[in-house]
Amino acid sequence: MQSKNPVFSRSQSAGWGSQTPTPQQLQNMYDSPSYAPPAQPAYRAMTIDDVVVRGFMTLGTLVVAAAASWYLDVPEAVAIGSAIVALVLGLIASFTMSTNPLLILSYAAFQGVFLGAVSSVFDAQINGIVVQAVLATAMAFAGTLAVYTLRIIRVTPKLVKYVVAAAVAALGLVLVNLIAGFFVEGGLGLRDGGLLAIVFSVAMILLGCFFLLLDFDSVEQGVKQGAPEKFAWQCAFGLTLSLVWIYIEMLRLISYFTSSD
Asked: Among candidates 60, 209, 207, which has minimal Cα distance to 145?
């Protein structure tokens, strides 16, 4: 009796070579990729359109709240309370890098109430100043966007440090001016309509434009790096914050020149 090959017997029992592959099966094995494709991210990446839509939603909420505040002629206490709430919500959204739509839209609503009251006061003193400030803010936005798009000023880590340092210094000066105002009329003269006040407002507007540059860079880098779609809310918040900054300073600056006339 002829003995069986033990290797062959083991292969048969394990199922090896139990069936010879057909030419079509061999071709399919050859055509199949030798590696598994990378897993797709669990979220949709942010796009420029996402930022635009969220930006319109945030600014739209702010404008509607401002119009309602102006039309209803809210009391001064309500305007100040709204400003405080907006400040708290803005600080939370900034330091936590929040992408919560409710938080950001709530900030826009309370900030809008405050802006509506402030705009009403300025317009009562100087007719048409609000329209001028809005147009000036839009021009500042368009000009800054052109500067960023043409790469006239490039956003670098060093520039970011300078802008943040300048903002801290500016806010420090505002605080010192406010405290000095309790002891000396006009404080340091940063808001009394004089030459120093004009220079300071121009500097603050330029600082707001530099923050817009940082906002544009944040949007571009977020899109390039595939940031989650929800990050568009933080980008919209940053843009709104910078535009509010510029608008308020535009109101002050225009009022200085109009008052001097």
From this structure: 209
CA 94 to chain centre: 9
- CB atoms under 10 Å from CB of 208, counted, come to 25
Q: Residues 225, 230, 232, 237: is their CA dihedral positive or negative? A: negative
Contact between 244 and 205 under an 8 Å Cβ cutoff? The reply is no
Amino acid at site 257 = F
Nearest alpha-carbon partner for 253 in 187, 188, 208: 208
Contact in structure between 236 and 222 (CB atoms under 8 Å): no
Bridge partners (DSSP) listed for residue 169:
none
Global pTM reads 0.81
pLDDT of residue 1: 44
Give the contacts of 208 (CB within 8 A, at least 6 positions apart): 140, 242, 243, 245, 246, 249
Structure tokens at 166: 């300048």
> How many other β-carbons are positioned within 10 Å of the β-carbon of residue 163?
16
Query: Average pLDDT over the chain, rounded to whole?
Result: 86
- H or E element that contains 223: helix 195-224
- Helices 101-125 & 48-72 angle (0-180, nearest 10): 50
Helix (H, G, I), strand (E, B) or coil at 119: helix
- How does pLDDT run across 156-171, given as a tens digit for each residue? 999 999 999 999 999 9
DSSP string, 131-166: HHHHHHHHHHHHHHHHHHHTTSS---HHHHHHHHHH
Instruction: Say if residues 254 and 136 touch (Cβ distance below 8 Å).
Output: yes
